[in-house]
Amino acid sequence: MGGEIREKNQGGGHFLILSGVTPFEQSVAMTSTLDSATTVLQALRGNRAERPAARTGDSVILRAALEDSLYSIVGPQHFFNPLVIRSQELRTEVTTLSANLHSFARVRGILMHHALRLLSVGYSFANPFEELVAAWRCEVGENELLAFIDHLDREDRAKFSTDIAAHTAALRHGLGVIGASWSLRSTVRVSNLLCSGAVALRDTIDLSIDTLGEGANSTVLLDLTTAPLDENSERTLRFHALNQTLRTGVTPLRSGVLSTATGEQLVRTVDTELLTRAVEDVLEAAEKKAGA
Amino acid sequence: MTTLSTTFVSPGALSELIASAPEVTTEITSEQRNSLAERFRAVSLPNHRRLDAWMVERATAQVTPFRWSPSTARRVLGNAALRYRMAKQVSPMAALDEVIVDHLSRAATGYARRGSLSSWLSQLSTAQLALVTSDALNWSHTLEEIARSVDDTVEVADSDAYYDVATARTTLRGRRDLIVARGDQRTILRLRSGAPGRTAGAGLRADLTIDAFSRPDGRIANQIIGVWPDAGLLLRVEGSIDDVRTGAKDLLRVANLQHSAFHQRALAS
């Protein structure tokens, strides 16, 4: 690998960050598993004293870079029917699951996002599966996936219940203690319109954290996945950073992904290179989608 | 003609928009109030009705019946929590807890009417209440962030604006989240989720209109700004008598559609 990796010691734990000297397009995705002592939130927030000043100039440059290229990709038909780019469309390969497994995976993903929302307000679980299903039902009423859960036989329900409990435990352990002064926002929806609305970048950032009254330079982003980390995690993380920069006009400090399947965590400092790569990812996805 | 302006969110952008509010302040006259009442009376329904900006934005589109959920409760709870936090200087979570406890005690003492937020909250499990808390806290944080980004005096609106059109059995409801006072100038801020659609300006104009009618002095706010944090966009409608006139026409159009639909249903049955 051409890039230089620095190891940083923060709050007793270690995590790896990609240094800014890596030549463009020369670094590859990597996964850093943190010491068990360092939670993903500690890694994301880092040392308060070392935080750089808020960067406010990136959003204008990124928007211009995206629009310059996107105008040549989108056609006139997209001015009435926008080309929507989501993080799923940035993925290199899509795993195909059977319908039944697909439903389990979708439900697991939804329940874990609900678990994150509940943990973000200090909820402690007694029976994660039942509590999460009840919370989900309160939000959406009834739907196909809830009917799927309701019609599981006892064996499947017991198996799935323990699976959810394990993922919830991994999530709770991975997050660690939430600081009293932190401002947590879960399931932050983003919809950045580009090229006069012909292109829409849609994203959902699972958790956005900053410190009350400290300004936007302390903002860090977290994505949650129930699958093991891979190259796509890196793309998702970049997409979140790009969208957050475009929507707020301030570049976030770090972006990370936590896997509740393996407990792996991936944390990146948001720099110009990361954002440039995110732009490339979006353009690639837009070309593919417009072509299709 | 309505002057709509769109701005990308950036540090200082909201304060700049507020500072550039039109300086002229206009008032609604009692003749204009009477004229509005007369027009609403002409398209009245047997039952009492409530109209708001959302109906103007949706126009004839099918609207699903209202039901309480974490996302429909977040604005009421989040605004109340921020109001409490600003008054008592407590943490966002403590403020929200206080607001929810207040609702629960209202339900427990029998003062909550059926179908109200208090009544719905009292039926939820602790996990469901935590989800409601999470959504409301998100709203409260976002609203506080907006309030902090403004250089002038900001307060959370005490309530939405309500105007009961005399003898027309019609209540108009205008949503407002933050009120910014800058000398004599008044700016209404509305926090919206998602991205603004083509009718977003009409919705803001309806809120501006209802706010003006709800005030005893009929004073029109200098401007209303819609903040769409999800899309990083600010949309401004300047407060002029023309905007209020068009806003009133939009509300009357909805009343008219309801009136026609009612008579068609009556004829069919």
Describe the structure using short key phrases:
heterodimer, A: 292 residues, alpha/beta, 2 domains, six-stranded mixed sheet, two-stranded antiparallel ribbon, 20% strand, B: 269 residues, alpha+beta, three-stranded mixed sheet, globular
In short:
Chain A has 292 residues and is an alpha/beta fold.
Largest sheet of chain B, in brief, is: 6 strands, mixed
**Number of domains in the coordinates of chain A?**
2
Radius of gyration of chain B: 19 Å
Give me the secondary-structure category of chain A: alpha/beta
What coarse outline of chain B follows from CA principal-axis ratios?
A: globular
The count of helical stretches of chain A stands at 8
Categorize the overall geometry of chain A: globular
Query: How many H/I helical runs of chain B?
Result: 9
Mean pLDDT of chain B: 92
The side-by-side strand order for the widest beta sheet of chain B comes to 1-9-8-7-6-3
Approximately how much helix is present in the residues of chain A? 40-55%
The number of E-state strands of chain B comes to: 9
Order of helices and strands of chain B: EHHEHHHHHEEEEEHEEH
Computed structural class of chain B: alpha+beta
Which band does the percent of strand residues of chain B land in? 15-25%
How far from one another are the termini of chain A? 34 Å
Number of domains of chain B: 2
